[in-house]
């Protein structure tokens, strides 16, 4: 190929490049440009040949320029440049050296990235907007939960609430797991409140509190005169009461195997017969169940039916014990002190040491125990400030049997005090009368009577 035609070929290649191509000398004087210059920057070739890029930068044609950076670094440099009409260019400057290694030319090519930059800005704005909306939702949600008396500051509790929130709108079976007093019932109520069934009933059935022999009659109801001692009018059971709403089966782990079969059939078919009745009844409800027992272990031990477990366990939510979510304790204390203060007509305040001590407790009975302690502290303190001494004296009273003191209470009163303390502790731990009776080796009616007597609930 002849020398002339090689040059022509180079020129043709250069001009065919869609991107702008510009060559300056070492001082930044423009020697050559491609035709795309007009299309991209709106500049005529004849107007800028011989011009200095520094001058064009001053005039605001494009800024910043890559030339000084290439001169300084003596290597390829890429920058984002802004031109008129806020166009954005990705500009790369390449140094060309003479045979002595001195900077001779700077070749620059630019690529229009306006659209890309706009997209990036848009994306950035969208991300900011999303962040803002997310924060707003979080604030609204916190406010909603706070208004409904549900404190959730810890990440663990927040993630429980997130799942609860997600499943509230669909009729999926939810199984709430966690120790006694962690807030399972409260969460079940909130799921109901956020569900489309909120205007319909929320029927709570404490499976552990209904004596085995009465379960069917209580759960499915019975027809008039169905059995000796039954009401003449018959009775509607929990199953029927839940029509249209949410049926909350609390303490489901306490159900006997025989009743598990019946409940499973009922959950699957959503139909039932009242005791002594022959009319099949249909009911439409959403099911939430809860237990503080390790259901999986019970299944392995064949104490809980696997098929029922799978039915219930569609969406499990495990609420961690209070001791594992320390960041909930202080907000809970503030909330409870405030609401008990209002209930008992006086604003109370905890001394910092009391706060410290409460934060360090193990809270085996979880939020219920914390509530009981704060309620007792508030009710029994005569001053507005609850002190460490007050807490200690209350703990002492709770701990052991009272010892004999001159002019102390009568023996009956002392025994009653002690009995009350035992029942309070047992109630915090086991909640149901059936369970308490079992643990204390007494009958369920006795426990129910004594709880009533001592106003423990
Ligand atoms: N996060 C919370 N914020 C405010 N109050 C709470 C919270 N969690 C629980 N409580 C309160 O603590 C008490 C016990 O909660 P709840 O009855 O829901 O516990 P539970 O897990 O269902 O207990 P159990 O297994 O013994 O039935 C209730 O009075 C409830 O309102």
Report on this structure.
Helix content is 48%, strand content 17%. It is an alpha/beta fold and 457 residues long. It has 4 domains: 3-112, PAS domain (Beta-Lactamase, 2-Layer Sandwich); 155-320, Rossmann fold, CATH 3.40.50.300; 329-399, Helicase, Ruva Protein, domain 3; 401-457, Arc Repressor Mutant, subunit A, CATH 1.10.10. The strands form 5 sheets. A 6-stranded antiparallel beta sheet has the order 2-1-6-5-4-3. A hairpin with a 5-residue loop joins strand 5 (87-97) and strand 6. Helix 7 (155-168) packs parallel to helix 8, helix 14 crosses helix 16 and helix 18 crosses helix 19 (433-440). The longest helix has 34 residues, at 114-147. The chain is elongated, with a radius of gyration of 38 Å. The protein starts with a helix and ends with a helix. The mean pLDDT is 87. Bound molecules: adenosine-5'-triphosphate. Adenosine-5'-triphosphate (ATP) is lined by residues 149-152, 178, 180-186, 250, 290, 292, 332, 367-368, 371, 431.
